[in-house]
Amino acid sequence: MPSSPRDVLAAFHRAMLAWSADDLANLYAPDAVHEFPFLAPGRPHRYHGREEIRAGYQAAWSATSVRLQEIHDVVVFDSTDSEVVIGQWRATATLEPGAAPVAITGLLILRVRDGLIVHALDYMDSLGTFHTLGRLPALLDSLGVSSSGQS
């Protein structure tokens, strides 16, 4: 089990690449909170507790054909708070096997206590990802906003 915030961040990235909701959820304290401050279509604003995090990621990952191929350009920032680590990242993903790769970017702020995540702030560029995947018009339509700029 990783113990330092940096180790937990690295384990988080490994779980994401493995597409393992179990490995990911096991990094969290039982009463942890995982928040998505930016609009993440199809996802709640936050998950409360390890089991909700597990179920939320299992549901999200089973509902998409997008698969992470690589997490790269990771820049880790240490905080003056020894429990906090900040990780800026880029990922390469594919929409389906054999498809051209697309870029995804984000920033993750983790508070780690006793080797477990107690709070996560997950700033992923969801709108940029939808745009890159060619799904932005469908997303806008689902929100009642015309992709031509008219609503």
Task: Characterise this structure.
The termini are far apart. The protein is globular. It has one domain: Nuclear Transport Factor 2, Chain: A (Roll). The chain is an alpha+beta fold and 151 residues long. The protein has a six-stranded mixed beta sheet. The relative contact order is 0.19. The protein is 30% helix and 36% strand. It is built from five helices and six strands, in the order H-H-E-E-H-E-E-E-E-H-H.
> What gap, in angstroms, lies between the N and C termini?
50 Å
Tally of structural domains: 1
Low-confidence blocks of residues: none
What structural category arises from helix and sheet content? alpha+beta
Radius of gyration: 16 Å
Q: Could you give the order of strands across the largest sheet? A: 2-1-6-5-4-3
Just name the CATH architecture: Roll
Largest sheet: 6 strands, mixed
List the helices and strands in order. Answer: HHEEHEEEEHH
Question: Approximately how much beta-strand content do the residues carry?
Answer: 35-45%
User: Could you say which overall geometry the principal axes of the C-alpha atoms support?
Assistant: globular
CATH topology: Nuclear Transport Factor 2, Chain: A
Helicity level: 25-40%
